[in-house]
Amino acid sequence: MQFNITAGQVGIRPPVNLPDPRFLEVLGEEKIRKLVSDHYNLLRQSNIKGLFPPTDEGFEKAKEHSADFFIQICGGPKYFNEKRGAPMMAARHSPFKINQEARRIWLESYAMVLAPLDIEDDIKQSFWNYIDIFSIWMMNSNEN
Question: Which residue numbers in the chain have pLDDT < 50?
């Protein structure tokens, strides 16, 4: 499977399709939480680690929020809305400088944790397609 990264520009929000609900059905909540946790663990060692909470407690909370969001957008319970309100993810990310490089690192880290998943490629691709476009929406800086 190819994890292609779509070219994106700050301020341009292409249409995004939610992942196939089978992503949640096949993996279940716990495996999605593990996927997100593994992704965050890679990010904590990356060049964009400064975009994430520095404390262990804050970092674990960020993992929980992210997993809640992805479970929700995959058709699961509305954990994110219940705990944090409407996602408004671009606004939530606005305090952080997210440029092309940060987006690339974030996506490449997801590719590393998605690749070994033993699920059908079309299901995995639907999740990748979502995060690929979703990540364009999060970009807010052209600075390096």
Answer: none
